[in-house]
Amino acid sequence: MPHVEVELRIAAPVADSWAAVMDVESYPHVMDNVRAVRITATTAPDTRTTAWSVDLKGSVLEWTESERLDHAAMRFDFHQLSGDLTDFSGYWGVRHGDDGGSVVTLSVDFEIGIPLLADMLNPVAAKALRDNAHQMLTALEQRLVGSTG
């Protein structure tokens, strides 16, 4: 299963970064590649279901995922319940950076679900997902600390 992981150091306190990461419904307002995110259910204080629509290299990728939030670890794990891919899971995490800021990670494992074309499509999809993840993290950084360049 292909794996994509992107990290970004952000000059913001971990509490602020964690709050921004958890606020998924704000993503469409600050991230150009996120069309929509809606929390559709909260089944426990730290478990929710969200519906996503994201632009991915000229295509629209849509899915519904279950999310488990671990506030103490500043991490939330997700896995697709239904959607365009056969499998889509991973986590968002925030940890203390060496410089007093924070490090935000988006890690994703995915399966397109077309075995005969996997060798050709997986590298293209992995690059597109990596680019999208980087755009998402950069947008979070800009939201937290302003323009970086």
Automatic annotation (TrEMBL):
One Pfam family of this chain: Polyketide_cyc
Name of the molecule in the record: SRPBCC family protein
Origin superkingdom: Bacteria
UniProt xrefs under InterPro entries = COQ10_START (IPR005031), START-like_dom_sf (IPR023393)
- Residues forming the Coenzyme Q-binding protein COQ10 START domain are 10-136
- Residue ranges of the TM segments: none
